[in-house]
Predict the structure.
Amino acid sequence: MDENNHKFLSDKERKNQLRLIRSENVGPVTFHKLMEQYLNASAALQALPELARLGGRVGKIKICSESAVNKEIDAYKKINARLIACGEPDYPPLLTQLEDAPPLISAIGHPHLLKKKSIAIVGSRNASVNGKHLAQKIAHDLGKNGLLVVSGMARGIDGAAHSGAIHTGTVAVLGGGVDVIYPKENQDLYHQISETGVILSEVPPGTQPKARHFPARNRIISGMSRGIIVVEAAPRSGSLITARLALEQGRDVFAVPGSALDPRAKGSNDLIRQGAILTESADDVIRELKAQTGGHRLEQRKSSLLSTSPPVQPSTIELKKTRSNVIEALSPTPTSIDAIIRSTNLNPGSVAIVLLELELAGRLERHPGNQVSMVISVLD
């Protein structure tokens, strides 16, 4: 996408987009599908009740009220946070390419930094002294070379990475609200980042971080970065989940080797064994990024801000036929949407609409890898 084509949302559309993503059963993927279908949030909001009814919804779908959105926007103003929509100039460029890109993110600090090329650094919360020192050194050197360092402001490696890049620019992506400092021990770091870097979140202000928030937070960390560096990571750690997300998103994974005697190095050593780029300094990362040419270029998704015409609407008869065939093809086991289209020989546009209906009705769940499943509790 040409940067000159970026647009700012009107205040009305921004509020409507916030209402849409805060409405029942509307996640990021569904949000983008609705925007592709209806072009603006106002039309999508009006369509929600009928779509949910056609999907088999019993009772009315809960649509976020204007008063609730006004209250949330007032809260952002009080904490001096900006609400940035996907496709707007300060939205992280690479993040737009994710199918589940956050429709809106809140930012405290200096959002213009988000246009810079980014690299993520993650690792163990219970990090070794050497691990933290190395993370800080790598972050410092990457920052000196013009890269924006991204992490999650957790204790351990995350905090060390932020500290290393504090003077050149660093981004802390939070699991809770943009105004919620977690862990509390990082209070000074939080204020430093808000003064020289950027604090980001996709959840409402005041939201306390819960375990379910962190996988979603991690997809933003990897999604906005050209690559991710894992410094220390135990098996089955959150850092390895972030590395897996990075691979799924087409990002490079770098890993710092560690002692075979240290369980905190087992995960990062396994990543190297599986093909991650062995990393001992910032030079290893910079060399790899410079070696990437146009063939490795990461493309941005087409923003709904630039859409001018809606897709052709299938007929009522076609949708009725599609609805029955798609429901028959679905099961509680995640199935690829492409596989459903191939097996049913149905129009992809019609399938997309029916999946929207089912999800808004609470009958469908989306999974990574463009897969969907029926919700067991409402299966016939």
Summary: Residues 90 and 360 are 30 Å apart (CA to CA). The chain has three domains: 3-94, 101-293, 313-378. Residues 1-5, 294-303 have pLDDT under 50 and may be disordered.
